[in-house]
Amino acid sequence: MKNVIKDKKSTFREYAEAILVALALALVIRTFVVQAFKIPSGSMEPTLEIGDHILVNKFIYGVKIPFLSIHLFPLEKPQRGDVIVFIYPLDKSKDFIKRVVAVQGDTVRIVNKKLYINGSEVSDPYAVYKEDTVFSAEVQKRDNFGPVTVPGGCLFVLGDNRDRSLDSRFWGYVPLEDVRGKAFIIYWSWDSQGTTVRWSRIGHLIH
Fold first, then answer.
1. Which residues carry out catalysis?
2. Residue 150 lies in a domain
3. Phi (first) and psi of residue 109, to 5 degrees
4. pLDDT tens column, 144-178
5. How many CA atoms lie within 13 A of 173 on its CB side?
6. Residue 166 lies in a domain
7. What are phi and psi of 126, to 5 degrees?
């Protein structure tokens, strides 16, 4: 009888230890390696659509030490064109996703919806404009903005859906310390109603 009880306790302990190890590994992976996010809005259409589920590489820009503004062993720095997830500057409880269009030292200007970096119009292949209306800078900053120079340790980001994106034009720069990682793949996708799987989007690399 004692052996049976002992065996049951041993089995329970083995399962408990396996579960704890699995949870610890999951926590480490989520904190330092890769994290899943769901796209809730259309600000990055058509690159990312409402209902896309994406994975974000959290170590490419360096391993962030929890509760500290420190990134260790970065493989690269955020570059123009990267799609990044970051802490929303106006509400630290929220994560945003946008595209980097300028890094520290770059001068950004938007003239009638055309993007200029350091005085030259740049190729902007991912930008989409769904409205013909062009607002002056006095009305709002969406279509005519700047020039501004990105300060050290910061990024200037825009949504690909330029006419319908709340981004650096309206709330300013993204501190490098608030960048969570680089989006790299869509691993699952529902339509906006959450009823139909968009199979063609699954496995799509994010550029």
1. 43, 98
2. yes
3. -145, 140
4. 999 999 999 999 999 999 999 999 999 999 999 99
5. 18
6. yes
7. -95, -10
Closest CA to 157 of 91, 92, 95, 82: 82
Chain-centre distance of CA 81, in angstroms? 12
- Which CATH number fits the domain that encloses residue 129? 2.10.109.10
Angstrom distance (rounded) from CA 124 to CA 154:
20
Burial 177-191 (b: 16+ CB within 10 A, else e): ebbbbbbbebebbbe
Q: Is 152 contained in some domain? A: yes
Sign of the dihedral defined by the CA atoms of residues 29, 192, 143, 130, in that order: positive
In a domain, 28, yes or no: no
Domain extent for 185 = 35-201
Instruction: Copy the structure tokens of residue 80.
Output: 């123009």
Proportion of the chain in helix, strand, coil states, percent, rounded to 5: 20, 35, 45
* Cβ count within 10 A of residue 108: 22
Q: How does pLDDT run across 105-124, given as a tens digit for each residue?
A: 999 999 999 999 999 999 99
* Structural domain count of the chain: 1
State which amino acid sits at residue 70.
Answer: I
Overall pTM > 0.85: no
Q: What are the backbone angles phi and psi of residue 163, rounded to the nearest 5°?
A: -80, -10
